[in-house]
Amino acid sequence: MNMNSKIESFVLHCGEMGSRWGFNRTIGQMCGLIVISDQPLTANQISETLNISRGNVSMGIKELQAWRLIQVQHKPGDRKEYYAPAGDIWQMAIRVFEERRKREVDPTLSLLRDNLLDEPANAQEVYAHNKMREIHDLLDAVTLWTSELPKMGPEKLNKLMQLGSGVGKVLDMKEKFLGSAKR
């Protein structure tokens, strides 16, 4: 596959973003390339296009499959395996959120729950206990909210994202209205 400058720029950027998403640069590039390719790609095509070893491609494919971001496809009469995105962009984003939650948030919540079981012994521990409770409650609320995202579907998710700060404005108006109604 030949990459024009725009595609190459995107793929390289995905590589740089890979570490922020939770995987390395090469895997980020592979994911970016597979996502924007109009046809499924073989491991050899990925290797040649990104100028990386076939071994790195194989390891990257396994990692992207573990994240559930790519899927294997077969073509009739062809023994090669082809790789394509596993779903649309929303589904892939939700999978990244789920994996990040499992790898980062769940262990933190577990540690916080264990620590919050013990009663604080002094003022310093009371302060730390309260802060850990705040962190736990925030992460728990975010986890609950994000667990609802996959149930919404792409159309509702798009609408939710478009609401953006508008939700905050509506809540502010509600508080003002309820506050003035109590007077």
From TrEMBL:
Signal peptide region: none
HTH marR-type domain span: 29-80
Listed Pfam families: MarR_2
Organism domain of life: Bacteria
Keywords: DNA-binding, Transcription, Transcription regulation
Family classification: Belongs to the GbsR family.
PANTHER family given in the database record: HTH-TYPE TRANSCRIPTIONAL REGULATOR MJ1563-RELATED (PTHR38465:SF1)
Name of the molecule in the record: HTH-type transcriptional regulator
Native source species: Catenovulum sediminis
Highest classification ranks of the organism: Bacteria, Pseudomonadati, Pseudomonadota, Gammaproteobacteria, Alteromonadales
